[in-house]
Amino acid sequence: SSGINAEWPLRPGDWVNDLIYWTSNANTIEVVDYTGEKRRSIIWKDLERPRAIDVDPEEGLLFWTDWGSNAHIGRANMDGSNMKKLVSNDPGKDAQIKWPNTIAIDRPNKNIYWMDSHLRDIECMNYTAGTRYSISSTPSLLGHAWRLRVFEDRIYWTDITYPAKTLSVNKFTGGDSIKHYVPKNAGMMNLRLFHEVLQPLSKNRCKNMDCSYLCLPKPISEGGAQCACPTGHELLYNNKTCTAS
After folding, report:
1. How far is CA 234 from the centre of its chain?
2. Does residue 197 come out as left (phi exceeding 0), alpha (psi in the -120 to 50 range) or beta?
3. Measured in whole angstroms, how far is the alpha carbon of residue 18 from the centre of its chain?
4. What whole-number distance in Å separates Cα of residue 136 and Cα of residue 211?
5. pTM (global) more than 0.70
6. Tens digit of each residue's pLDDT (9 = 90 or more) over 156-212
7. For the chain, how are helix, strand and coil distributed in percent, rounded to 5?
């Protein structure tokens, strides 16, 4: 568990390729296989305080929030390549993003949702950084969000301001708010939703890659998968076998 961001204990799993991704307190994004034996840092540049993270194995993409002084919403391939800031602040203008504390993917519709605990709003954008929408900015509902999830037509989240509740709103309008009560003093923080739509069956693009260490997915348009080595090693000419660099 060395290096894991203890403030963000819930780490998204890639159920297709048997991988777990997380943000670390060393300001990196890392990945490990389900055995816990093969681990690698995949992103370490331009990160200051990476926070929440979510993945879409079918598309080979990962998304994260960073609430450092250069707060942003980021996207990259699941092997760490092609990193891009989807939302960030323009110098000299009022902050458009401040404390993006949590993020969630709406996989069927290829949208991402995030909540900013300073600006107290929920926003949405598609995977390709199209139009950005404000879903809700109701102060009485939005305190300090901890975990966000999207399912069907609703957004669900936990909030440390309301430890005995989960909350939800309509994902299109931000209306029809509901407070779901949990047992008293339960301290509800993390949140998981289980449904086959949220983890669809997909082709394991790493199955026949024959990588000597890790195989990491990426978009089909960019090859579909990539072998990866531990720190201090590099791939040989066959792009499958690792050797000390």
Report:
1. 27
2. alpha
3. 16
4. 45
5. yes
6. 888 777 666 778 889 988 888 777 766 665 666 677 777 888 888 888 899 889 999
7. 0, 40, 55
